[in-house]
Specification:
By secondary structure, the chain is α+β, with helices and mostly antiparallel strands. The protein has two domains: 118 residues; 124 residues. 35% of the residues lie in helices and 21% in strands. It is built from seven helices and twelve strands. The longest helix is centred in the last third of the chain and has 22 residues. It is elongated.
Amino acid sequence: MAQHQGWIPLTDCITAYMNESEQSNHKEFKLTHLAFEAMDELGLDVFYSIKSVKLPVNANLTVSLPANCLKVSKVGVFNQQGAVIPLSNNNNLSTAFDLQPTRLAQTQDASIVTIEQQTGTGWYNYWNGYTLGTLYGVPSGAPFVGSYKIDNANGCIVLSESFSYDYVVLEYVPSPDESGEYYVPIQFKGAIVAYLAWRDIRSMPNSRKGSLGDKQMRRKEFYNERRLAIARFDPVNLTDAYEWNLTNQRLAIKS
Protein backbone atom coordinates (compact mmCIF):
# COMPACT_ATOMS: atom_id res chain seq x y z
CA MET A 1 0.00 0.00 0.00
CA ALA A 2 1.54 3.30 -1.14
CA GLN A 3 0.38 5.38 1.80
CA HIS A 4 1.21 9.10 1.77
CA GLN A 5 0.88 10.29 5.38
CA GLY A 6 -2.86 9.88 6.07
CA TRP A 7 -3.77 9.30 2.42
CA ILE A 8 -3.79 6.33 0.05
CA PRO A 9 -4.23 6.17 -3.73
CA LEU A 10 -7.75 5.40 -4.90
CA THR A 11 -6.26 2.59 -6.97
CA ASP A 12 -5.29 0.83 -3.72
CA CYS A 13 -8.98 0.54 -2.82
CA ILE A 14 -9.77 -0.87 -6.28
CA THR A 15 -6.90 -3.37 -6.06
CA ALA A 16 -8.00 -4.41 -2.55
CA TYR A 17 -11.50 -5.25 -3.80
CA MET A 18 -10.23 -7.11 -6.89
CA ASN A 19 -7.95 -9.22 -4.68
CA GLU A 20 -10.71 -9.85 -2.16
CA SER A 21 -13.20 -10.90 -4.84
CA GLU A 22 -10.54 -12.75 -6.90
CA GLN A 23 -11.21 -10.75 -10.06
CA SER A 24 -8.82 -10.05 -12.92
CA ASN A 25 -7.63 -6.69 -14.21
CA HIS A 26 -10.22 -6.62 -17.01
CA LYS A 27 -12.72 -5.28 -14.45
CA GLU A 28 -10.47 -2.33 -13.52
CA PHE A 29 -12.13 0.16 -15.92
CA LYS A 30 -15.60 -0.53 -14.51
CA LEU A 31 -14.39 -0.47 -10.91
CA THR A 32 -12.53 2.82 -11.44
CA HIS A 33 -15.75 4.56 -12.45
CA LEU A 34 -17.57 2.95 -9.52
CA ALA A 35 -14.80 4.25 -7.24
CA PHE A 36 -15.45 7.80 -8.50
CA GLU A 37 -19.13 7.27 -7.68
CA ALA A 38 -18.08 6.10 -4.22
CA MET A 39 -16.15 9.34 -3.69
CA ASP A 40 -19.26 11.34 -4.64
CA GLU A 41 -21.44 9.22 -2.35
CA LEU A 42 -19.00 9.64 0.55
CA GLY A 43 -18.59 13.38 -0.03
CA LEU A 44 -14.95 12.85 -1.05
CA ASP A 45 -15.32 14.62 -4.39
CA VAL A 46 -13.81 17.64 -2.63
CA PHE A 47 -10.51 15.72 -2.77
CA TYR A 48 -10.43 15.83 -6.56
CA SER A 49 -7.35 17.76 -7.68
CA ILE A 50 -7.87 21.52 -8.05
CA LYS A 51 -6.76 22.69 -11.48
CA SER A 52 -5.53 26.22 -12.18
CA VAL A 53 -5.59 27.62 -15.72
CA LYS A 54 -5.14 30.99 -17.43
CA LEU A 55 -7.99 31.66 -19.86
CA PRO A 56 -8.47 34.42 -22.46
CA VAL A 57 -11.33 36.91 -22.16
CA ASN A 58 -13.74 37.05 -25.08
CA ALA A 59 -14.56 40.35 -26.77
CA ASN A 60 -17.97 40.45 -25.06
CA LEU A 61 -16.36 40.20 -21.59
CA THR A 62 -17.12 36.52 -21.06
CA VAL A 63 -14.79 33.58 -20.48
CA SER A 64 -15.58 30.08 -21.73
CA LEU A 65 -15.47 27.46 -18.99
CA PRO A 66 -13.43 24.28 -19.59
CA ALA A 67 -15.57 21.33 -20.66
CA ASN A 68 -14.40 19.28 -17.66
CA CYS A 69 -15.27 21.96 -15.06
CA LEU A 70 -17.38 20.57 -12.22
CA LYS A 71 -17.16 23.47 -9.78
CA VAL A 72 -15.50 26.88 -9.87
CA SER A 73 -13.26 27.55 -6.88
CA LYS A 74 -11.75 30.96 -7.67
CA VAL A 75 -11.73 33.57 -10.45
CA GLY A 76 -9.10 36.33 -10.46
CA VAL A 77 -5.92 37.81 -11.90
CA PHE A 78 -2.25 37.62 -10.93
CA ASN A 79 -0.47 40.30 -8.92
CA GLN A 80 3.27 41.08 -8.90
CA GLN A 81 3.96 38.33 -6.34
CA GLY A 82 2.25 35.64 -8.41
CA ALA A 83 -0.71 35.46 -6.02
CA VAL A 84 -4.27 35.49 -7.33
CA ILE A 85 -6.37 38.58 -6.61
CA PRO A 86 -9.92 37.22 -6.62
CA LEU A 87 -12.85 38.88 -8.32
CA SER A 88 -15.98 39.34 -6.25
CA ASN A 89 -19.02 37.21 -7.03
CA ASN A 90 -21.79 39.47 -8.32
CA ASN A 91 -25.14 37.76 -8.79
CA ASN A 92 -26.63 41.00 -10.14
CA LEU A 93 -24.77 40.60 -13.43
CA SER A 94 -27.07 39.53 -16.24
CA THR A 95 -26.47 36.30 -18.16
CA ALA A 96 -28.56 37.49 -21.11
CA PHE A 97 -26.97 37.32 -24.58
CA ASP A 98 -23.83 35.64 -23.14
CA LEU A 99 -23.11 33.76 -26.35
CA GLN A 100 -23.56 36.77 -28.62
CA PRO A 101 -20.75 39.18 -29.56
CA THR A 102 -23.13 42.11 -28.96
CA ARG A 103 -23.77 41.17 -25.32
CA LEU A 104 -22.32 44.39 -23.88
CA ALA A 105 -24.42 46.65 -26.07
CA GLN A 106 -27.59 44.73 -25.21
CA THR A 107 -27.04 44.60 -21.44
CA GLN A 108 -25.74 48.10 -20.68
CA ASP A 109 -27.76 51.24 -20.00
CA ALA A 110 -25.67 54.38 -20.41
CA SER A 111 -28.19 56.49 -18.49
CA ILE A 112 -27.32 54.78 -15.19
CA VAL A 113 -23.99 55.58 -13.50
CA THR A 114 -22.78 53.19 -10.78
CA ILE A 115 -20.69 54.02 -7.72
CA GLU A 116 -17.93 51.91 -9.21
CA GLN A 117 -17.86 54.10 -12.32
CA GLN A 118 -17.86 57.27 -10.23
CA THR A 119 -14.98 56.30 -7.94
CA GLY A 120 -13.04 53.85 -10.10
CA THR A 121 -12.89 51.46 -7.13
CA GLY A 122 -15.12 48.92 -5.50
CA TRP A 123 -15.86 48.17 -1.85
CA TYR A 124 -14.03 51.31 -0.74
CA ASN A 125 -14.59 50.55 2.92
CA TYR A 126 -11.54 48.66 4.18
CA TRP A 127 -9.80 50.38 7.14
CA ASN A 128 -6.11 49.43 7.12
CA GLY A 129 -5.30 51.31 10.31
CA TYR A 130 -4.59 54.65 8.66
CA THR A 131 -6.96 55.23 5.74
CA LEU A 132 -9.88 53.67 3.92
CA GLY A 133 -8.96 51.43 0.99
CA THR A 134 -10.37 48.75 -1.28
CA LEU A 135 -11.04 45.26 -0.02
CA TYR A 136 -9.21 43.41 -2.79
CA GLY A 137 -5.52 43.11 -3.50
CA VAL A 138 -2.30 42.35 -1.62
CA PRO A 139 -1.64 44.55 0.25
CA SER A 140 -5.00 46.18 0.87
CA GLY A 141 -5.73 49.24 -1.21
CA ALA A 142 -4.93 47.61 -4.57
CA PRO A 143 -7.12 48.71 -7.50
CA PHE A 144 -10.55 47.10 -7.78
CA VAL A 145 -10.33 44.28 -10.34
CA GLY A 146 -13.97 43.61 -11.09
CA SER A 147 -16.70 41.08 -10.45
CA TYR A 148 -18.08 37.99 -12.14
CA LYS A 149 -21.01 35.60 -12.34
CA ILE A 150 -21.04 31.96 -13.43
CA ASP A 151 -23.46 31.13 -16.24
CA ASN A 152 -23.69 27.35 -16.01
CA ALA A 153 -26.38 27.11 -18.69
CA ASN A 154 -24.10 28.62 -21.34
CA GLY A 155 -20.84 27.35 -19.84
CA CYS A 156 -19.12 30.69 -19.34
CA ILE A 157 -18.08 33.36 -16.84
CA VAL A 158 -19.70 36.78 -17.15
CA LEU A 159 -17.39 39.68 -16.23
CA SER A 160 -18.33 43.17 -15.08
CA GLU A 161 -17.81 46.21 -17.29
CA SER A 162 -14.94 47.40 -15.05
CA PHE A 163 -12.80 44.34 -15.87
CA SER A 164 -9.87 45.51 -18.01
CA TYR A 165 -7.60 42.45 -18.26
CA ASP A 166 -7.35 40.16 -21.29
CA TYR A 167 -7.25 37.00 -19.16
CA VAL A 168 -8.56 35.44 -15.97
CA VAL A 169 -7.04 32.87 -13.66
CA LEU A 170 -9.54 30.10 -13.05
CA GLU A 171 -9.16 27.55 -10.27
CA TYR A 172 -11.73 24.77 -10.55
CA VAL A 173 -12.53 21.16 -9.72
CA PRO A 174 -12.30 19.08 -12.92
CA SER A 175 -14.30 15.95 -13.58
CA PRO A 176 -12.30 12.84 -12.63
CA ASP A 177 -10.15 11.15 -15.24
CA GLU A 178 -9.48 7.42 -15.05
CA SER A 179 -5.87 8.07 -16.07
CA GLY A 180 -5.35 10.53 -13.20
CA GLU A 181 -4.05 9.83 -9.70
CA TYR A 182 -6.36 10.49 -6.77
CA TYR A 183 -5.82 10.15 -3.03
CA VAL A 184 -8.40 9.57 -0.31
CA PRO A 185 -8.14 9.55 3.50
CA ILE A 186 -7.09 6.09 4.65
CA GLN A 187 -10.11 5.98 7.00
CA PHE A 188 -12.40 5.64 3.95
CA LYS A 189 -10.69 2.62 2.41
CA GLY A 190 -13.12 0.12 3.94
CA ALA A 191 -16.13 2.18 2.86
CA ILE A 192 -14.91 2.44 -0.74
CA VAL A 193 -14.18 -1.30 -0.90
CA ALA A 194 -17.66 -2.01 0.52
CA TYR A 195 -19.22 0.31 -2.07
CA LEU A 196 -17.42 -1.51 -4.88
CA ALA A 197 -18.58 -4.86 -3.50
CA TRP A 198 -22.19 -3.65 -3.45
CA ARG A 199 -22.31 -1.81 -6.78
CA ASP A 200 -20.38 -4.52 -8.61
CA ILE A 201 -23.39 -6.85 -8.35
CA ARG A 202 -26.28 -4.45 -7.73
CA SER A 203 -27.49 -4.44 -11.35
CA MET A 204 -26.75 -8.10 -11.99
CA PRO A 205 -29.76 -10.46 -12.35
CA ASN A 206 -30.16 -12.81 -9.39
CA SER A 207 -29.65 -15.78 -11.71
CA ARG A 208 -26.20 -14.51 -12.81
CA LYS A 209 -24.42 -13.17 -9.77
CA GLY A 210 -25.57 -12.75 -6.21
CA SER A 211 -28.96 -13.17 -4.62
CA LEU A 212 -31.24 -10.36 -3.50
CA GLY A 213 -30.23 -11.06 0.08
CA ASP A 214 -26.55 -10.77 -0.83
CA LYS A 215 -27.15 -7.41 -2.50
CA GLN A 216 -29.05 -6.09 0.52
CA MET A 217 -26.33 -7.34 2.87
CA ARG A 218 -23.61 -5.59 0.84
CA ARG A 219 -25.62 -2.36 0.76
CA LYS A 220 -26.05 -2.48 4.55
CA GLU A 221 -22.33 -3.17 4.99
CA PHE A 222 -21.45 -0.13 2.87
CA TYR A 223 -23.56 2.26 4.92
CA ASN A 224 -22.13 0.82 8.12
CA GLU A 225 -18.56 1.29 6.81
CA ARG A 226 -19.52 4.80 5.70
CA ARG A 227 -20.69 5.66 9.23
CA LEU A 228 -17.50 4.26 10.77
CA ALA A 229 -15.27 6.07 8.24
CA ILE A 230 -16.85 9.44 8.98
CA ALA A 231 -16.46 8.84 12.71
CA ARG A 232 -12.79 7.88 12.30
CA PHE A 233 -12.02 10.76 9.96
CA ASP A 234 -13.37 13.39 12.38
CA PRO A 235 -12.89 11.83 15.83
CA VAL A 236 -13.99 13.47 19.05
CA ASN A 237 -11.31 15.79 20.39
CA LEU A 238 -10.24 14.41 23.78
CA THR A 239 -9.77 17.90 25.25
CA ASP A 240 -13.29 18.89 24.19
CA ALA A 241 -14.67 15.64 25.58
CA TYR A 242 -12.90 16.29 28.90
CA GLU A 243 -14.31 19.82 29.09
CA TRP A 244 -17.77 18.53 28.19
CA ASN A 245 -17.53 15.93 30.97
CA LEU A 246 -16.46 18.54 33.55
CA THR A 247 -19.32 20.84 32.53
CA ASN A 248 -21.86 18.06 33.00
CA GLN A 249 -20.37 17.21 36.40
CA ARG A 250 -20.70 20.83 37.53
CA LEU A 251 -24.30 20.94 36.33
CA ALA A 252 -25.06 17.70 38.18
CA ILE A 253 -23.55 19.12 41.41
CA LYS A 254 -25.58 22.36 41.14
CA SER A 255 -28.79 20.45 40.58
